Amino acid sequence: MLLADLDFDLPPSLIAQAPANPRESARLLRLSRATGATSHTTIREFPELLRPTDLLVFNDTRVLRARLLGHKPSGGRVEALLLEELGRNRWRALLKPSARLQVGASIFFGEEQGRVEARLLERDGAQWTIAFQCEGDARDLLPQIGHVPLPPYIQASADDNEEDYQTTYARTDPHIEGRAFDSAAAPTAGLHFSPALLQQIEARGIERVFVTLAVGTGTFAPIKVENLNDHPMHAERFHIAPEVAAKINAHRASGGRVVAVGTTTVRTLESAVNEQGEVRGGWGETRLFLRPGAHFHAIDALLTNFHLPRSTLLALVAAFVEDAPERTQDSNGENGSISRGLTLVRAAYREAISNRYRFFSWGDAMFIE
Question: Disulfide check for 121: which of 129, 267, 278, 350 has CB 3.0–4.6 Å away?
Fold first, then answer.
């Protein structure tokens, strides 16, 4: 599969710069994997599209205030994006501009009265290891010195939109089994769910469970190689509670559908499948790159936003559409090199664009079943 197969033209005016208000007023394009048929509705009607025997699986990660604005002793500005906590007050981070930064140098974050020093310990390619020089835990200072890291294609102020870039069911405590576990980006399909919508789903007797995957900035990274087999997939950590894994396995064994909310949930579940096709509980790290030709063992339906061109997430969606258990039509696609799944996804995206759907993190959604 070639990178060009994942390209499409998107008018910039369709890149959502603000979320739908209320959340459930976002539009929803429904796509049948078996037939390729599409229909149009809204997220508000999503509960009616579910079956009583469905099990919804959400990623409950919380977005960290991981964007820090600072300066060098000389006064030059530096921006940091915290990627992963390596130990008490030690973090892996991206810094920009970084060309003139040196190991051993210091950066100061925050205002004068609450200023915090961070020392540069090590550089590994584009990433740095930094150590905050403070008596307490630097994580506790992030609500004061940090900002929500909105995606680069959103021009809005992060501070004015923090609640809008957080799911309503995000973990209140980022720690799992004593380990801090949060994200540099939101699991955006989950942004559509207001408390009222979740109550509607619960009222219909449809169960839900939560897994946790720490979404990294790699989720926005474009593919830079022409052959997708050569793409080095970014790593993301996840956790599935044993009781959640057991519930998912029992649900599928009884014939119910597992409905994944978002591609991060898909990668979590599919990365945790064992040789018997069951989801394993516990900790893990995934570099799973799902693209046409892949088989899905843990999910039966997917709610997802519209994704960036030339992205791994678009490849994942095409792979899921292609891996339909039953088909009423079959095709090799628009030409011999393009998969059936990608053909259907490209057609659905063209339909969405022609109907002025809103794209990316704060955009509208697709329900693929």
Answer: 129
- How far is the CA of 111 from the CAs of 116, 144, 204, 295, in angstroms? 9, 9, 50, 51
Residues of the chain with CATH 3.40.1780.10: 3-63+181-368
Predicted TM-score of the model (pTM) = 0.92
Start and end residues for every CATH 2.40.10.240 domain found in the chain: 67-147
What are 220-248's pLDDT values in tens digits? 777 889 998 999 898 899 999 999 999 99
| Model confidence pLDDT, tens digit, residues 185-194 | 999 999 999 9
Give the separation between CA 286 and CA 215, rounded to whole angstroms: 11
Return mean pLDDT, the chain: 92
Question: What percent of the chain clears pLDDT 90, i.e. is strictly above it?
Answer: 77
Return the CATH number of the domain spanning residue range 67-147: 2.40.10.240
The sign of the CA dihedral 295, 303, 308, 92 is negative
Q: Which residues of 140-179 are buried (b: 16+ CB within 10 A; e: fewer)?
A: ebbeebbbbbbbeebeeeeeebeebbbbebbbeebeeeee
302 touches 310 (CB < 8 A)? no
**Domain at 3-63+181-368, CATH homologous superfamily:** QueA-like (3.40.1780.10)
The gap between the terminal CA atoms of the chain, to the nearest Å, is 24
